[in-house]
Q: What sequence folds into this?
């Protein structure tokens, strides 16, 4: 049995102090991996259903054939791993602002998603996803003009609750239109949100993309036994 609690990493970043912790949950008898930014919990390995559904719902809108995918936000790696489970995926580019988070995966600190760094189809790129969109830069350093079949984003809590004020401009018609320049003509944009479906944001997506839909994703909270929910927005050109 593993130790009851272990802080695997703690570092100061421009966004605050970020830490990766592993603790043994006494009731579930499983190791839980958690990420905190200062005193705020960002993610937990107990709650990954919607992160996985972000990949599945986004890729479900794409036709058969070789797919090139971008994931904005690495985190614990569950969205990226779900992308790699799709046999159609040819390449995966994961854009992550914090080198510390990329380092966790390269050091093998997260056993459940350890296959991410060893898969030849994937590359981890350090960069500010929102700045890359705002400046019309590419997601692939080796090919700045490259376009992708899907861009899947899980960074902020929701379009209305962002981790940094600089992210807010992305969740506007202009910001979303800039993103379309990085998508293929039949490309898909999908977004994870911790909030219930937002009609105003769904309408904004519909004004920029050909189709837009908010998908509530429900799951059982293993700590309380109650039902919890996130939202995945999916829009296609």
A:
């Amino acid at each position: 049995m593993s130790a009851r609690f272990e802080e695997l990493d703690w570092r100061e970043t421009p966004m605050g102090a970020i830490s990766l912790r592993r603790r043994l949950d006494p009731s579930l008898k499983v190791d839980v991996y958690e990420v905190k930014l200062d005193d705020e919990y960002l993610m937990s390995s107990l709650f990954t259903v919607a992160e996985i559904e972000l990949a599945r719902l986004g890729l479900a809108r794409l036709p058969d054939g070789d797919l090139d995918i971008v994931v904005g936000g690495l985190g614990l790696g569950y969205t990226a791993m779900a992308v790699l489970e799709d046999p159609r995926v040819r390449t995966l580019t994961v854009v992550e602002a914090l080198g510390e988070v990329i380092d966790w995966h390269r050091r093998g600190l997260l056993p459940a998603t350890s296959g991410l760094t060893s898969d030849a189809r994937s590359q981890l790129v350090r960069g500010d996803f929102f700045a890359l969109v705002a400046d019309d830069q590419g997601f692939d350093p080796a090919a700045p003009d490259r376009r992708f079949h899907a861009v899947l984003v899980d960074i902020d809590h929701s379009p209305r609750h962002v981790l940094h004020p600089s992210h807010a401009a992305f969740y506007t018609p202009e910001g979303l239109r800039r993103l379309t320049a990085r998508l293929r003509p039949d490309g898909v944009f999908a977004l994870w949100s911790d909030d219930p479906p937002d009609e105003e944001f769904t309408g904004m997506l519909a004004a920029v993309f050909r189709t837009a839909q908010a998908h509530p994703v429900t799951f059982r909270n293993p700590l309380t036994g109650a039902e919890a929910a996130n939202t995945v927005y999916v829009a296609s050109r």
